[in-house]
Design a protein that fits this description.
With about 190 residues, the protein is an alpha/beta fold. It has one domain: 3-Layer(aba) Sandwich (Rossmann fold). The protein has a 5-stranded mixed beta sheet with strand order 1-2-3-5-4, with helices on both faces. Strand 4 and strand 5 form a beta hairpin.
Length: about 190
Amino acid sequence: MDYLETDPAVDAGHVAVIGHSRLGKTSLWAGANDTRFALVISNCSGCCGAAISRRVFGENFAAIDNTFPHWFTREFDKYRFHEELFPADQHWLAALAAPRPLYIVSAQLDGWADPRGEWLCAKNVEPVYRLFREPGLSGAEMPALAADAAPESVVCDNAGTVAYHIRNGKHNIIAPDWEQYLAFARRHFGR
């Protein structure tokens, strides 16, 4: 953002931060720490990203810390196998994007990233968005894909300032995701 603010070709007031997987975790962190990002998108970010940690579903603290110990301070070790003791949960991080638009995305076949936990994160940020008089998700239930959904089908709940969609497929970011992100950004940026 520091650079983008100096580039006359960029409208620095309308910059979205987006990331997939590890970078989906990073986009949530960047959005929480830098309000210059006008829109925050986290795609299939899972454990320590958008998935609710206390669900202990899919990738968990022990698994992520074993695989990527360099991502964490050693203080994190005491929560391995003890997510219930962690003093926060991921919706607290995601809520720091408020009142800016927040979009969380899952892939149906990405159990490791815990699609239901990611949806719960989007749902659980709603009280913070209400403080700013911004709408959250429109539905009370997680959007569901039909059992016979075509490859790359998308089911969205993205009419509010908080949005979520689940896509048929695996752990990746693909054209149907981008179509939804661009439509969401156009709606919020008025372009």
